[in-house]
UniProtKB/TrEMBL annotation:
Residues 40-136 form the Stress-response A/B barrel domain. Keywords: Signal. This is Stress responsive alpha/beta barrel protein. Transmembrane segments: none annotated. The keyword Iron-sulfur does not apply. Residues 1-32 form the signal peptide. Coiled coil: none annotated. The lineage of its organism: Bacteria, Pseudomonadati, Bacteroidota, Chitinophagia, Chitinophagales.
Length: 139
């Protein structure tokens, strides 16, 4: 066995680790199966009839919180209001946003006709004047 300097040892060890890492990555990637289902994202923006009304905003937020508890196909949700960030590409004209994650499009389709969702619309639609929805799926 030849004697190596510390630098030679570290260099050789690094090359061995790099090769092992690439083999592991390519092996894992080759064996990985694509997800069976594509996550479905549903993002809703609400503009209120009375944008300065804290009462209307509170009613909408309470309705969304109740809906989040009752609609069974929602995996994860987020209720928000516009951030104070200020750049040309940011739209802060809405009052409340509602971000939902579903396991797949089928679960989102079930949500659309869920009695809890329909009741939310019935009880809260009087406070908003405009709603815009952005839906997306994993690629």
């Amino acid at each position: 066995m030849s004697k190596q300097t510390r630098r030679q040892f570290l260099s050789a060890a690094g090359k061995t680790a790099a090769v092992a890492g690439v083999a592991t990555l390519t092996g894992s990637a080759a064996m990985a199966e694509p997800p069976a289902e594509k996550v479905f994202v549903h993002h809703v923006y609400f503009w209120l009839h009375n944008p300065d009304s804290q009462e209307d905003k509170a009613k909408l937020i309470a309705g969304l919180q109740k809906l989040a508890k009752e609609a069974k196909t929602i995996k994860q949700h987020h209720i928000g209001t516009p951030s104070t960030t200020n750049r040309d590409v940011i739209d802060r004209s809405y009052q409340v946003s509602w971000l939902l994650f579903f396991k797949n499009k089928a679960d989102q389709d079930v949500y659309q006709t869920d009695p809890a969702h329909l009741k939310f619309i019935e009880e809260c639609s009087s406070v908003w004047k405009k709603v815009i929805v952005y839906d997306s799926e994993d690629i």
